[in-house]
Structure formats: C-alpha cells, structure tokens
Amino acid sequence: MEELSAVRHKAIAALADAGVPSPGVDVDLLLCHVLGISRSELKLRELRGDSFEASHREEFTQLVAARRTRIPLQHLTGVAHFRYLELKVGPGVFTPRPETETVVQLGLDFVVQQALEAPNCIDLCSGSGAIAAALASELPGSKVWAVELSDDAIQYTKANCLPHQVTVLHQDATTLPEDLEGIMDLVVSNPPYIPPNAIPREAEVRDHDPAMALYGLGDDGLQIPRAVAGQAMKLLRPGGYFVMEHAEVQQDSAATMLREAGFTQVSGHEDLTGRARATCGYAPHR
Ligand SMILES: C[S@@+](CC[C@H](N)C(=O)[O-])C[C@H]1O[C@@H](n2cnc3c(N)ncnc32)[C@H](O)[C@@H]1O
C-alpha cells in the first residue's frame, strides 16, 4: 500500500500541472472529503507515515481527475466554508467567496453599533444563502429574509437558510412586495455585477458559476445592482443601512449609484486583501 504522503504529493503535482491555482489546499480538502476526516487529522496521519487505504483509491483518483478539468473544488466536495458555516453548494449556484465574508461583517458592525436587539435584515440575490444564513446565525434575535430568482439556485438557498429560520423568497429581488417596505434595518446584497465584455479568465468561474450570478446586465454590468439599490431604499426604515458588494473597478460608480438612489453618508470599504469591494449607505431620516 502506498503512503498517504506520497499519494498527496503526486496529486498536488497533477493539479499544479493542470494549472489549478491552489493545488496543495485542494488536495488536502479532497483527501479530507474522501477519508471523512479533518485537516488536522490528515496532517497527523501524514506525519505518522500512515498508508492510504486502497478502498479510497478509486474515488480519490476520480476526484483529482475531475479537479484537473477545473471543476470547482466545492462542486466536488459539495460544501463551501463561509464565516462559521458549512454551506451546501453545487452546479447551478454561485460559490460564495471570502470577500463576501467582509460584506457580512459590515452589516454586523452596523447592528452592533446601533445596539439593535431584534433587527430585520434582508439579503437580496442570495444564491447559496451565504449572507442570509450568516446574518441569522450570528445575530440571535434577528428576523432575516433571503431573496433569490434562479430556479437552480433556490434549492441551495433553502437548504442553507431554512435551518436558520430565514424566510426564503423565490422571486425577483428588485420587485418585492409592498408589505416589506420600510421595515428593514439592514439590506445586504452581492448582486451580479460583471459587465458583458469582462468574461472571467478563471475556468472555475467562467464555466461553472451560473451566468445569471455573474453578469449584472447593461454596458457597465450595473443594471441589476442599480435596481437592487433602488429596492433597498424602499425596504429600509429611516436610518437603515445598505451594504453592497461590487467589483474593485466599480468603486466610483457604486458610490454614485447609491447617492442617486438617495443614500446618505455613502462610504467605500476594502476586503481583507485591500481591494475596494463594497459600498455602504444610510437611508435618510425623512
Ligand atoms: C453574485 S451571486 C451572489 C450569491 C450570494 N449572495 C453570495 O454572495 O454568494 C448573485 C445571485 O443573484 C441571483 N440573481 C440574479 N438576478 C436576480 C434578481 N433579479 N433577483 C434575485 N436574484 C437574482 C443569481 O441567481 C445569483 O444567485
């Protein structure tokens, strides 16, 4: 039987050869998935010089071959880690990204600063439900809604949000019912925002994230974000807060968009790598 360490190193070389951006992490997560163990247990077994059990060989070989074709790691394991949550993901739903964790934090900071004990929060364009589920799980006492239009993504929105008592709405996030207007303390959104001529280079994104999750329509990709900002203004109570994710190059357009929608104290925010990836604003006190 081959040593686990040798199997691991061969798989890393195979993924690196296929241009996979983070081959070491990916192989570790695939091994953990196949063996049903944590990363610390994997490290321990490797250091101990444990063997790789033959019964797992075929499944692991198939997963490495699939990852070499640039199928996203999260589609192969079926999970994505987001803040404190393990979310269900797969084909048909946008894989949540680390920068969106910062977007959630901006919303949480507002709730803490305002000392809101039972805030009403809504996540527009929810996809996997990452934002809504994170808000609900980290804000005990909150009431959270998630809104997603895609027929393919909605099963994931429900699977990830319903365990956290989030109300899931399967509809267009830019035309919400009037009974939700003026009742929200916080609106958070990571809408589609890529312009039509900026097709992503990364195969995992270009070929596996749904087009509906990527492209924001209009020449600048901001047609849906603009409509989302307009809807957010209607949903918020006076003094409520809106947080929206966007591309780094859209920082100025996003600020203009929020001001035009009527938001005040508009501010841009960076992600953990220092890129301007979110813009926030307050609904005015009327
Ligand atoms: C960039 S993804 C973000 C998903 C999730 N919020 C996240 O951060 O991981 C955008 C999502 O918006 C959805 N979407 C696109 N247009 C929409 C609309 N008009 N109403 C509701 N959802 C929409 C897409 O299906 C996709 O799930």
Question: In words, what does this structure look like?
Answer:
The termini are far apart. The chain is built from 12 helices and 9 strands. The protein has a 7-stranded mixed β-sheet with strand order 5-4-3-6-7-9-8, with helices on both faces. It has a two-stranded antiparallel sheet with strand order 1-2. It is of the alpha/beta class. It folds into 2 domains: 4-69; 83-282, Vaccinia Virus protein VP39 (Rossmann fold), CATH 3.40.50. Helices cover 42% and strands 19% of the residues. The structure holds S-adenosylmethionine (SAM). The site of S-adenosylmethionine has 23 residues, from helix 7, strand 4 and helix 10.
Task: Provide a quick synopsis of the model.
The chain has helices at 4-17, 23-35, 39-47, 57-68, 73-77, 98-113, 130-138, 154-161, 203-208, 211-214, 223-235, 251-260, and strands spanning 79-82, 85-88, 120-124, 143-148, 167-170, 184-189, 236-245, 264-270, 276-282. With 286 residues, the protein is of the alpha/beta class.
The number of domains is 2
Question: End-to-end distance, in Å?
Answer: 72 Å
**Global structural class:** alpha/beta
Which CATH class of the largest domain applies here?
Alpha Beta
Widest sheet, order of strands: 5-4-3-6-7-9-8
Q: Write down the CATH topology of the largest domain.
A: Rossmann fold
CA radius of gyration: 21 Å
Low-confidence stretches: none
- What can be said about the biggest beta sheet? 7 strands, mixed
Please name the fourth-level CATH homologous superfamily of the largest domain.
Vaccinia Virus protein VP39
Beta-strand portion reads 15-25%
Structure ligands? S-adenosylmethionine
